[in-house]
Amino acid sequence: MSFNWFKYSSPASFYGISHSIIKAASGIAIILCIVGLYWGFAKTPDILTDQKEYYRILFIHVPAAWMSMWLYVTLVFWAVTGLIFNTRLSYMMAAATAPTGALFAFLTIWTGAFWGKTSWGVWWDWDPRMTSMLILLFIYIGYIALQNSIADTRRADRASALLALVGVICIPVIYLSINCPDPYQCAALHQQSSLKQIEKNILIAMFIMLFATWAYSFAIITHRLRSIILEREKRTQWAQDIVRDKA
C-alpha cells in the first residue's frame, strides 16, 4: 500500500494532519531542550581554557545561528517552489517560516553581544560575521514587511519570494565568514569555526540543543501555518466549519 504525499500539498489536507505534527514536534523539543541544558550545565567542564562559565552561551548562540541560516534556506526553497509550481501551500510555508527565522537571527545577535562584551570587551563590532548576520535579520524583516504591505495575497507572495531569492546570497557570505579558508583574509573579532577542537561533552550538548531548536521550529512554524491557512482559506466551507467549531 503506497502513501500519497502529494495529497497533503493542499491546504485542507495538510491542516488535517498539522495538529499531530505540532504535538509530536513540541514533545521532542521539550525533551531535547531539557536533556541538552542538563548536559550543558552538568556534564561539561566547569572551565574551558580562559573563558570560564560564559562559554555556556554557546548552547544557545550556536544552534540559533545555524537555525537562522537553515530556516532562510528553507524559506527560499518554499518560495521558489511556489514561484515554479504556483502552489498556495508553498507560499504559506515560506510566510510561516520567516518570523521564526527572524527570531533566531535576533537571538544570535543578542547572545553574541553578551559573548562579545565578556570575551572581547565590546558589545558590537562591524566585522564580517556580525554584519552579515545583521543583514540576514534585516532581510527577514523586509520579507515579513513586504508580505504585509501588499493587499493582494498572490502579488505579495510573488514579490516577497523574489526578495527572498535575492537575499539568499547572504547565507554563503555568513558561512564563509565563519569558515574562511584563510583567516588573514577574514580578520575579525569573531573566531573561526572550531568544532573539531571543542570538548566532546560540550559538542554533544550543543548538538542536542540544535535538534531541540529544529523540533521547536517545526512545531511553531506548523502552528503559525495553521493560522495562515485558515486566514487565506476563510471563504471555503471547510475552513468556515473549523472556525465555527472553535468559536
**What is the element string, with H for helices and E for strands?**
HHHHHHHH
**Radius of gyration based on Cα positions:** 20 Å
- Give the number of helices: 8
Number-wise, the strands total 0
State which percent range the strand residues make up: under 5%
Give an account of the 3D structure.
With 247 residues, the protein is mostly helical. Helices cover 73% and strands 0% of the residues. The protein has helices at 11-42, 58-85, 88-119, 128-149, 153-167, 170-178, 200-232, 237-246. Helix 2 (58-85) runs antiparallel to helix 3, helix 3 (88-119) packs antiparallel against helix 7 and helix 4 packs antiparallel against helix 5 (153-167). The two termini are 38 Å apart.
Please sum up the structure shown:
The protein has 247 residues and is mainly alpha-helical. Helices cover 73% and strands 0% of the residues. It has helices spanning 11-42, 58-85, 88-119, 128-149, 153-167, 170-178, 200-232, 237-246.
